Amino acid sequence: MLSTVVFYSASLCRRVVIQSYSIHRRRIHSVIEYPLTHPIYTIWASNTSLGKTLVSAGLSISFISSSTRSSRKKFVYLKPIQTGFPEDSDSRFVYRKFSDFFAYKPLPFSVYASNRVLKASIPASSVLMNDRNEVFVDEVVGKGKKIGDGFKNVEWYEERKLQGNESNESELFPVSEVVCETMYGWKEAVSPHLAAEREEAMVGDSELLNLLKRCLGNGLVGTTYSSVESEVFCLIETAGGVASPGPSGSLQCDLYRPFRLPAILVGDGRLGGISGTISAYESLKLRGYDVSAVIFEDHGLVNEVPLLSYFRDRVPVLVLPSVPKDMSDDLISWFDKSQTVFTSLKEIMISDFLERTQRLNDMPKKACDIFWWPFTQHKLVPEEKVTVIDSRCGENFAVHKSVDWISQQFDACASWWTQGPDANLQIELARDMGYTAARYGHVMFPENVYEPALELAEILLEGVGKDWASRVYFSDNGSTAVEIALKMAFRKFLSDNKVLLDLVNSDVNGRCMDLKVLALRGSYHGDTLGAMEAQAPSPYTGFLQQPWYRGRGEFLDPPTVSMCDGTWEVSLPGKLQSDKSGQECLLVQGAGGMLMIDPLYQRILVRECKNQKIPVIFDEVFTGFWRLGRESAAEMIHCQPDIACYAKLMTGGVIPLAATLASDDVFEAFTGDSKLKALLHGHSYSAHAMGCMAAVKSIKWFKDPNTNMNMMSESRLLQELWDSELVVQISSHPAVHRVVALGTLCAIELLAEGSNAGYGSMYASSLLNKLRDDGIYMRPLGNVIYMMCGPLTSPEVCRSILEKVYARIQEFGQH
Amino acid sequence: MLSTVVFYSASLCRRVVIQSYSIHRRRIHSVIEYPLTHPIYTIWASNTSLGKTLVSAGLSISFISSSTRSSRKKFVYLKPIQTGFPEDSDSRFVYRKFSDFFAYKPLPFSVYASNRVLKASIPASSVLMNDRNEVFVDEVVGKGKKIGDGFKNVEWYEERKLQGNESNESELFPVSEVVCETMYGWKEAVSPHLAAEREEAMVGDSELLNLLKRCLGNGLVGTTYSSVESEVFCLIETAGGVASPGPSGSLQCDLYRPFRLPAILVGDGRLGGISGTISAYESLKLRGYDVSAVIFEDHGLVNEVPLLSYFRDRVPVLVLPSVPKDMSDDLISWFDKSQTVFTSLKEIMISDFLERTQRLNDMPKKACDIFWWPFTQHKLVPEEKVTVIDSRCGENFAVHKSVDWISQQFDACASWWTQGPDANLQIELARDMGYTAARYGHVMFPENVYEPALELAEILLEGVGKDWASRVYFSDNGSTAVEIALKMAFRKFLSDNKVLLDLVNSDVNGRCMDLKVLALRGSYHGDTLGAMEAQAPSPYTGFLQQPWYRGRGEFLDPPTVSMCDGTWEVSLPGKLQSDKSGQECLLVQGAGGMLMIDPLYQRILVRECKNQKIPVIFDEVFTGFWRLGRESAAEMIHCQPDIACYAKLMTGGVIPLAATLASDDVFEAFTGDSKLKALLHGHSYSAHAMGCMAAVKSIKWFKDPNTNMNMMSESRLLQELWDSELVVQISSHPAVHRVVALGTLCAIELLAEGSNAGYGSMYASSLLNKLRDDGIYMRPLGNVIYMMCGPLTSPEVCRSILEKVYARIQEFGQH
To answer: According to its UniProt record, what is one Pfam family this protein matches (chains A, B) (predicted)?
Structure first.
């Protein structure tokens, strides 16, 4: 695929710069949160100049009009990004239209309106100072203070009191108000990324979101006019179209995504506007936004007919009367005429908001009532322990905390070790998922071929299967991948021991021998019966869980490696045993408590199995795809299996898919003239297109140093993600028994004794509850806690998490 | 969610019409196909008036300019939909610009150009006749003939010979040519759906696509000027923006989707144009289109910088010089100046085309080399038997047939019985999949709650679980759902037999008794070991396939029901047996050969199990969600299970997801104070958001008579899909043994003896090969062939398939 620009005349030397400058811009480190005590909406448009600000002003009028003597209202309007400033100022426009309207048609009581500007580029702030008397006719308090990055803190403010038309009013009477704010202004009337560049006034995405978060918080605070609680309504107006770049160059629909605020879309009523409106809506959906309404100005083309047909049952469509060319009455009569529409819009927005908060509040109880969670004793999960996840943005959940707050938590368990994407890759995957569903849905696999399945098979054989695997068998999850691997290994073993195969063929009943696996004690390979049988007996395999389980293996106690008190140590087991057939191997035992098995031990074991013609299976479901810093754990122990299983992170963590890779020898054990000799195992969605596409995209993205800043280009290794000094410090803490930090994993075993140790232990729960307050979502494996990031997570994020964990361990140790 | 329009003044009475008129418009019955012998591209734009036609003309000039003495070129330009006609005519514009350019800058040899109009609305065709002398200055042959639907077959034609500048030319010399065609013209310069309505000249989507297919076929045919094979390049220009409605009201990106031709997107270089370009691209991706290049006119805003950042590595971006306001030279100098860009564009398009065809040709061999297909003896699948699936549109595959053709085949095996969507639902699902990936990706399930999982659990309990189930346990596929169901049933059985439970609890080793299932012989429940154990012994469970299989059940031979010679018959089995523990039940045995088990037998069996406190599992993986005409098979046998398994069609067939539903009694057997009493079974992607969302959408869509025309609103049953007379006829054919037609399934057992019977038989393969030529993709179960449609498939489509099958059976019977 080409990735160049063909430009008709200009020099091409800027190509390189263009291609790589934006991908790592959006590493957002601040914790995003916003209140759910009142509606906060973002207003988007399918193009510039479609009247977003008219809609904002109309909503402000409609909302404040509903004030009564006993019900005070506060309408907050935020314009984070304003170009062409101060000539163009949408917050001033809303302030003015609102004021003019109520000056002309006063309410029974007084209303306050204000407009504030927080920061302006130096060129914009100079104009602001010069034009002071011309532009701002109301009371103006302005002071300019130069700050970094080419901005001045202008703190420009104007306000008006709109007198009510009833005489019995006093200053103590509850007062409604409209608060308008421009966050950043640039002088040139061009796209924000151009204005920011030309005026040398740049603002990073994180910084902008942080200021927005503060402004949203301010919406809660009572004003100077009254101590009475007010009903608040907040509107954030974007600049240009939904995918217009913000000041950093990030598209605005990406820039604001961490908040994922509900949206209003201002559509286009002109010729061609149907298409633009639908496409803009689809771009919002492709970022996970919910759109509460579409509204547009009538241009006599009845665009609402096809739009309604498209939006049927999903989104209400509202039509505003044409805006008159003659604006001599300052649009007062237009706003008047439009009030029914704005009131409908406002009601839709408020009702959607109430529905959303109601649902969020109801969800824990409903979940406790009808879900049956895996690996969960429901009696031990009271409603208040249930986490309501509103969305995910990269490595972070947005959770509904207490009654009235949406807040981010870092998904430190990587959602059962599946997760890889950051916010950028997530959006790329979203588009690819939409595309793949539209192009293929799912199509039948056997005897067929289609691009995503073929490309994934190629990528797997060139990557994790390089130099040993020749075939790819797809299934749905790690457990099925292991069941398939076992079937392959059994056949290979029989085929390598022809005497045995003859025995099988000559025995009508065919139950002529007892095949066992050689496996590591403490390993976990999945919960279907075949995968369970390859695990050593434990409470998880007991009669109470699965009466059919027998434990068909010889199980070894391997030596493990971990850091204690700052040094790496090997823990030796009792002694070794050895016996027949398939053997499974993995570098780190995940569910078994994040134990890192001695690599040398594994290498020798594999070599010995190969010498004895025992087929070797690597279960890389957990360890594959850079989970431990390398594409496969096999790279680390420097030997190759006959069969290997992959799942979890393979698709980047969006969707289930598994692959069992096999060598040519294994495959050959199944070929012949009879279908009955083939591997007769399959699942309906074998090699489903969406899973394959997600895997193709994710593996390529992880591997490419242009998209994965953690990838060291020569070695194809991830850089160290966990600060090594901090790891040593933690391992030396008296409350800590051992630490394993490798690739995306940092596991900490807390020193515990008796019932505090082991998988069933609740020992770590108070620690984990506090970490959730710190914005880190962890789940323990008994007294082992772990943090898991993705291959794309920046070391800075990892460091900040580790610091928080260390601080909480210090508190914990003092108990 | 609201679904109304709020309109500022107009009467609201058209609401109802608006909301329901378009959803069933796009039932396309014709078989879509197009040649791959030469590039065929569709040119789209992000808005109106961005210069699609300039790009078309530029490409025509660039392509023909590359002609040489020995290489004849043919450029075909098609404009399917033209409004504002004949004043506006893009095909005439291309014809003119091309002609003017080569009249001014002649090639060494002559070139022909022609422009044709096929159909015009009556108002448009009157103007065409009147304006004849003004509008068409070249040789014009016009005749108007009234046809149905308000169109005239105008067959308007003009052509020019552009003399070469070398003297030694003769008429025999290979001649290059540009062929321009307008398919449908309307007079008013408004959106096609409005023009079609106002001029009472409607054209259905099917009809339009059929004409387009014919026009594309014509591109292959040699012209009158030469018998020499020419190199062809074909361009189809759409009208307006990507999501502008076509004449029927279908969005054009939906209308043309069955062809899924590669695309060129003309973007927008103006202020706000970045957003519109990106959104339009995303709308194309959300319909499964591949975009080869984005091109736009420079307006001095360097829109290419953010566009390149967005399109990085995916799509090349090209920038055209600004179009001069002064057009006095007919843009000749502009076309001249733009030739480098057009030539780059042309080369990108040709190279993408060659890459695509090369890949399609290579895929079968690569698939045979590296895939390991499930249930497939690779030695029996030669390369030429491999089907290359380019895409799916609703129930149809687009397959790559022979070397140079893309053609539709009806997916009559519903891709292993998973499929439900038609073209409309597929596009809805695609958007929802993109949204869900962007909003959630996948998030951790245990102790958490998020909307798609909760909503799906609610829908399942109100639907298939109504009146009996209270809990939903999610997993990944039918096999895991069955493993979970077995674990539930065992515990329930122990819990109901407290003596046994005490025995278990007192026995340290816990292997105190042998639990078995009571199941039906011939049933299939999946390929993981636990699911296999619940199946009767067969070659599929033998030692060669899984040495650990023992067959832990008592297996019954049930009576079956089918139609033979036009009458329904019950086949009685040997005799019944009966024994302990869980029992599985399903109305139709799918993999076992589409046997319909006697419902009365099942009802009695279930009642008897319940009497004896044996927990009952319904395996509804295949039968659930209207597969057999009702939401669940349980509705048909009028009794309820304790546990039931669902998968396959649950997600509409896009993505794997399974659910095991359980009654409260079953759930209670797992509650207690210890985690070890909980059901300790789970998969990483348990209740993954995308699967849940697909299921929510699909189940609602299938159930709603407003979206599913097959749903009879009172009874919640599907209407009969298979023509009953035809079914009787087929069942009476001498080559046919029996027929089962129920819901979306029509299975036909061919009369066969000895090795021709049974699952391994190749008996039906010649029949199925012929049906693939008829555009029907089927897979046999030995001598049983079946057709499976989706719950949304129209009875007309089913009828046409059944007719083709009947015709082939008649041929087959004569062998």
So the answer is: Aminotran_3
**From CA A268, how far away is CA A65, in angstroms rounded?**
27
Residue A421 within any structural domain of the chain: no
pLDDT by residue (tens digit) across B420-469? 999 999 999 999 999 999 999 999 999 999 999 999 999 999 999 999 99
Return the pLDDT at B2: 32
Task: Tally the C-alpha atoms within 13 A of residue A244's C-alpha that lie toward its C-beta.
Answer: 28
Q: Does residue A685 lie within any of the structural domains?
A: yes
What residues in A contact B649, CB-CB < 8 Å? Answer: none
Q: Which chain A residues have a beta carbon less than 8 Å from that of B317? A: 5-6
pTM of the model: 0.94
Chain B within 8 Å of A690 (Cβ-Cβ)? yes
Distance CA A344, CA B224 (A): 64
Give the CATH number for residue A747.
3.90.1150.10
CA distance B264 to chain A (A): 14
Average pLDDT, chain A: 88
B403 within some domain: no
Number of helical (H) and strand (E) elements in chain A, helices listed first: 25, 34
Phi–psi pair at A742, nearest 5 degrees: -155, 125
| CB atoms A451 and B320 under 8 Å | no
Query: Which of A3, A48, A688 is facing B312, going by the closest CB pair?
Result: A3
Number of domains in chain A: 3
Residue B372 forms part of a structural domain: no
Residue A505 near residue A523, CB atoms below 8 Å: no
Of residues B410, B798, B415, B751, the one with CA closest to residue B562: B751
Number of A to B CB contacts under 8 A, please give it: 703
Distance CA B706, CA A134 (A): 59
pLDDT of residue A67: 85
Domain co-membership, B439 together with B297? no
CB atoms < 10 A from the CB of A49, how many?
11
d(CA B809, CA B607): 41
**Is B479 an 8 Å CB contact of chain A?**
yes
CA B190 vs CA B55, B145, B151, B196, B247: distances in Å: 22, 25, 17, 10, 11
User: Looking at this protein, which amino acid is placed at residue A20?
Assistant: S
Residues contacting B634, CB < 8 A, separation 6+: B464, B618, B620, B640, B641, B644
CATH number of the domain where residue B670 is located: 3.40.640.10
Q: Which of residues 130-189 of B touch A (CB under 8 A)?
A: none
Q: Tell me: do B750 and B658 sit in the same domain.
A: no
Is the confidence at residue A505, as pLDDT, over 60?
yes
pLDDT digits (tens, 9 = 90+) for A176-187: 999 999 999 999
Give me the residues of chain B with pLDDT under 50, please: 1-28, 133-144, 222-226, 575-583, 585
The Cα B198–Cα B407 span in angstroms is: 35
Q: Does B480 touch chain A (CB under 8 A)?
A: yes
φ and ψ of A653, to 5 deg = 95, 20
Q: Which of A357, A387, A415 is the last residue of a domain?
A: A357
Closest-CA residue to A309 (of B198, B238, B193, B149): B193
